[in-house]
Amino acid sequence: MDHPLPADPHSEIRNEVAKLCAHFPGEYWRKLDQVRAYPTEFVRALTEAGYLAALIPEEYGGAGLPLSAAAAILETIHAEGCNGAACHAQMYIMGTILRHGSPAQKTAYLPKIATGELRLQAFGVTEPTSGTDTTSLRTFARKEGDTYIVNGQKVWTSRAEHSDLMLLLARTTPREQAKSRTHGLSTFIVDMRAALGHGLTIRPIRTMMNHNSCELFFDNMEVPAANLVGEEGSGFRYILDGMNAERLLIAAESIGDAKWFIRKATDYAKERKVFGRPIGQNQGIAFPIARAYAQMRAAELMVHEGCHKFEAGLTPGEEANIAKLLGADASWAAAEACIQTHGGFGFAEEYDVERKFRETRLYQVAPISTNLILSYIAEHVLGLPRSY
Ligand SMILES: Cc1cc2nc3c(=O)[nH]c(=O)nc-3n(C[C@H](O)[C@H](O)[C@H](O)COP(=O)(O)OP(=O)(O)OC[C@H]3O[C@@H](n4cnc5c(N)ncnc54)[C@H](O)[C@@H]3O)c2cc1C
User: Are 241 and 360 contained in the same domain?
Assistant: First the structure.
């Protein structure tokens, strides 16, 4: 006997997001890609529809939706051929303010983030010298009276030119004086509008896809002490705290990409005839698409499992990391199958395959690389010795 599957609780959100995305077809993204421009109209439409405030509680003007709803939003954006990278950070960065910010910070920022009056899109963690080894970061915030004076440098701070606020991770206790490896780092809300030209310099980095990532230089940049989030020295813990949500949401985006590639490849494989028959009749074409589909479904289940745990107030470290790994692998496998299925046309800009191919490759590296996820599983799930 068939058991009816539970209905997708977010099917209405998916339909509405898909309708919004229909206003931003491949041509829109292609034009921006050519000049590496920011999708301002797309981000405005998402903001006005309230999607970027999905996770902000209703008392602060947001929709107060669960993480699985945010995952459905981002997945749909990607499955429809759009790209959430221009604005996804707002969804998870605000969690740090929500969970660890003071009542004054929450009241000052969250309602304005919810309406779109303030954009919190920049997340300054990675530095050129320390890379993945975050606790070795060198940007230093020295306290002088009511102000922190920040000196140092960040790299790959995405959307810095299109954000009003940045969540910054900086060292406040020299590493050799810190109680432990992870202590002595602090999190700040930086008002980038006030800081730009007053100690903050932003330099865009041109990348293989349209991502609006930047290098940031801090030269005696002043941040009011009131903008410290939570306790001084505990910032690394606050950042870690938000990472499960971030990984689940990024996994959802890669699942969306995988769905887009699979649909595009399947449609083309049915319609393109070579040697008098559809190319999809060749198992050499069909099997890689079928395999990518199976990988995508596995990743999808892990995202659901992770969101389920998160929403139950548990810590889905294992699920979030595995979801990110499986999602990134599924989207890459689907991208490979899609470009191969399209033959030469996969390389033509007008098919959008090559653009999405470049975009989806990022998930193997950012926001955390596949190797570091495997290290997490080896160490924290399997109990193997730490490798670094
Ligand atoms: C387009 C883009 C946008 C980004 N946006 C942001 C952002 O908004 N904010 C932000 O803070 N950062 C951002 N990042 C940075 C991103 O998180 C890092 O690039 C990523 O974490 C890897 O760090 P890294 O580039 O310094 O590589 P490295 O740390 O130098 O590592 C290089 C390679 O070595 C591997 N490696 C390193 N150590 C080990 C180990 N112990 N075991 C096995 N393998 C290892 C890594 O997996 C990687 O493949 C972005 C990056 C890109 C490319």
Answer: yes
